[in-house]
Here is the input.
Amino acid sequence: MMVMTDFAIEAVGLSKSFGRITAVANFDLKVVTGTVHGFLGPNGAGKTTTIKLILGLLKPNAGSIRVLGFEGGGKKIDVRRKIGYMPELPKLPFILKGRELLEIYGEIYGLSKKDRSNSAKRLLELVGLSDRADDRIAHYSKGMQQRLGLAQALVGDPELVILDEPSLGLDPVGMVEVRGIIKKISSEGRTVFLSSHLLHEVQQTCSHVTVINRGAKMIEGSIPTLLEKLSESNKITVELEKVSDDIMKALEGLNFVEDIKWEGKRAEILCSTTGDFRADVSRAISDAGGLIIGMKVDERGLEELFLELIKGRA
Ligand code: ATP
Here is the structure.
């Protein structure tokens, strides 16, 4: 039954085991329609298994999954047709030419000869392969193969595009190209669900993220919200014109200060809670007769948070 939804993917309590190995455990996921949603986790976290559950290629042991408003994910062929999928390191038939591959996929999707030719042409343009369209895939670089993989995921004009580690094995130039294509895919109004173990890829490409580790959800939210949370740093470094006992006492007296490390005229102030304490620090120092020459808020990125999460410290 079709249910109107703001979520392209909605999973509740999803679990999947392979014998004694639990790949996904009581996992919840919400992917807002129209967003580029990062699915971040280290190797073996359960990303590919979750994707296969979404696609209906695997059956969950427990939990429910709704994709594009339909119960059961891509199990139903009508739903599956609306999902574009690029597997991790797609294995493309080397014997074919890029254009041929896309036209064959078009045929599978039931497009007329003219439509599949137009679709292949448009997609080759989108992924920047027009000038190599009639070369064999065997002669494509890794980056070109990956871009062709992205194009094949778009053949059926999908509403939802699922990309499993699209930048795996690419050099920085290849990564930038893939990032540009993902932006284009998103600007066409499609929802993109992108799995990655690369923080900066998710940070630069996605508007939302769900972090998974050992099959369980660690954190979720919009990238700006997460970054905002992180920018409420708990470490402030100030450089003073000169240090005095009064300044030291004033800083130690601030109720949010947990610890201060002095290194010459530089103080590293560790706060007990997160928040923006720059004004309080500045006022305390000037009230004690001091002068601030420099102030730096420790900006943690998603990378640091991610490492903390997977070490189980956050
Ligand atoms: P990677 O980025 O390395 O591909 P991942 O996050 O995609 O990792 P999964 O491939 O989902 O992780 O694997 C999660 C866990 O499930 C791993 O311990 C893996 O060995 C196990 N697993 C996955 N598929 C199977 C299977 N068919 N049979 C047995 N174990 C499996």
The chain has a mean pLDDT of 88. The chain has two domains: 7-229, 232-298. Residues 18, 21, 23, 41, 43-49, 88, 197 surround adenosine-5'-triphosphate (CB under 6 Å). The radius of gyration is 25 Å.
